[in-house]
Amino acid sequence: MNTNKNTMPPMINIIVLFMLFLSRQVAAQSNNEVLKMDLLKTEIIKMDSLLFDVAFNQCDVSLFKKIIADDVEFYDDRSGLSTSKPNEIKSLLAKCDRPEKLTRKLTSCTIDKLGDFGAVQIGEHTFYINGKPEGTGRFIHIWERKDHDWKLKRIVSYEHRPIKK
């Protein structure tokens, strides 16, 4: 009988080494996934900024056309369903022709991966007229990644509420 307390049976050594190896692999995968999610969130926030801070707020119609998918679907609690990219462009042009300046600011959002398809962005925003807050709303955006470009494919805009003055 072996009385040396420092000696472990060889099988236990192998199991301990294997478990250490697996824990390092899991940690490496977790770090890689965290980095990928950080990159995804950065890309979607950038797209949101391009769509609203530039295209919507500054009336950059050519940028708006590039970001909105050709088969866009826009579900709105006030106007229902729009499935026409040309109608969305007309709506932006009409907004830009109004004397009062309507702008949108992102209040908060979460972003999650949708497999290899793209991402979902769920958030809240505030709308301003001539720099004064007018109302808030919630939204769900489905972003599709095509090659290296992002397209806004589906929009759900709901819970529009005026700011209480």
From TrEMBL:
Signal peptide: 1-28
Domain DUF4440: 55-152
SUPFAM superfamilies: NTF2-like
Keyword annotations: Signal
One Pfam family matching this protein: DUF4440
The protein's name in its UniProt record: Nuclear transport factor 2 family protein
Organism: Flavobacterium azizsancarii
